[in-house]
Amino acid sequence: MLPPPGRGDLIAIDRPALIGPLDTIEVDVFGIPDLQREMQVDAGGRIAMPLAGTIDARGKTSQELAQLIEAALRARYIRNPQVTVNIKSSVSQVVTIDGQVVEPGLYPVTNQMTLMRVIASAKGLSEFARQDDVVILRTVGDHRMAGLYNVAAIRRGIYDDPAVYANDVIVVGDSPQRRMFRDFVSLSPLLAGPLIAVLQ
Q1: Which helix (H) or strand (E) element contains residue 146?
Q2: Is the dihedral of CA 98, 111, 164, 86 positive or negative?
Q3: Of 54, 97, 170, 189, whose CA is between 20 and 30 Å from 114?
Q4: Rg of the chain, C-alpha, whole Å
């Protein structure tokens, strides 16, 4: 199976473990109930809080944003503020699906997301989609990896529906990623199981 990404793959600078625009966060200032609130990051990546003002949250971890809020509150004479930030929901944690599906695009990744669930989120395969031509592209450590899957075989229970993670790119149908598998597929039909390759 295509290996899952490691923690480092999900918290790198361009990975959505970081706070992004339109994410919903919860801010708790210990001992000051009036400053406890759930809020949505605006489209520009900023939040606005009483006493703290407007703060750029984009690209910050929860801990980094908490430290920025603490600094802003200290500047307003709040002694030793203790701030906790939690990400409640993240629309920046997404998987990309392209190719022969009804609605290609970016879809949020939730717990237990799988290939078939992402295809369902994209309103299913298009009428003439090639079900044996589904590629998942993923970065694991320093390696770009790809898995080639047969949706019909998954539907028949021949092999498991693979897990999908934030930052995965799924391509349904013919593509440069799919064509690199051509020689393999002629020797090893996908009905038996998916094909996995390291691209770099």
Answers
A1: strand 143-149
A2: positive
A3: 189
A4: 21
Task: Answer positive or negative: Cα dihedral of 87, 89, 90, 93.
Answer: positive
Query: pLDDT for 75-109, tens place per residue?
Result: 988 899 999 999 887 776 788 899 899 999 888 77
Instruction: Please answer whether residues 102 and 126 qualify as being in contact, where contact means their C-beta atoms are separated by less than 8 angstroms.
Output: yes
Strands (E), 30-168: 37-40, 46-49, 53-56, 83-89, 94-99, 105-108, 134-140, 143-149
Domains and CATH numbers, the chain: 18-89 (3.30.1950.10), 94-198 (3.10.560.10)
Which of 188, 107, 167, 145 is CA-nearest to residue 1? 145
Q: Are 100 and 172 in contact (CB under 8 A)?
A: yes
pTM above 0.70, yes or no: no
Which candidate, 143, 115, 178, 124, places its Cα nearest to that of 5?
143
CA 93 to chain centre: 3
